[in-house]
Amino acid sequence: MSADSLRFATAVNCIDGRVQQPVIDFVRKKYDVEYVDMVTNAGAAAGLNEQILANVKVSVEAHQSAGIVVAAHEDCAGNPISDAAQKSQCIETANAL
C-alpha cells in the first residue's frame, strides 16, 4: 500500500509518553486521517531545530501530510513554562512551519 492511498497528518509533539495518544486522537479527528507522523522532541513547542524541520519535511513530502499540529502539555520537563506561554509558542512554531 503506497502513501498515496493512505491519509496522513503530522504532529510536532513533546517526547512525553503521556501525551502521545491524546495528540494522535486529536490529529486523526481534526484532519480525518488514519495515520499521524509523530515528530518528537523534549518541549518541542519551544522552537524548531534542524532535526524537527527535516522530519516534518519527510512527513509532508513522503506522506502528503493533510496538516500539521504543534502540541504542548502542562508540566513539561523539557519546557517548564506557563500554559499561556506554551500556547503562544505553539502558535509561533506552527506559523513558522
Q: Any overview of this molecule?
A:
It is a single chain. By secondary structure, the protein is of the alpha/beta class. The protein has one domain (3-96). 41% of the residues lie in helices and 15% in strands. It has helices at residues 20-31, 50-63, 83-96, and strands at residues 8-13, 35-40, 68-70. Strands 2-1-3 form a three-stranded parallel beta sheet, sandwiched between helices. Strand 1, helix 1 (20-31) and strand 2 (35-40) form a beta-alpha-beta unit. The chain is globular and about 35 Å long. The model has no long low-confidence stretch (mean pLDDT 91).
Present the secondary structure layout.
Elements: E1 8-13, H1 20-31, E2 35-40, H2 50-63, E3 68-70, H3 83-96
Parallel strand pairs: 1-2, 1-3
What is the first-to-last residue Cα distance?
28 Å
Low-confidence runs (pLDDT<50, min 5 residues)? none
Please provide the count of β strands: 3
Mean model confidence by pLDDT: 91
Largest sheet: 3 strands, parallel
Task: Please give the radius of gyration in angstroms.
Answer: 13 Å
Provide the structure class.
Answer: alpha/beta
How do the strands of the widest beta sheet line up side by side? 2-1-3
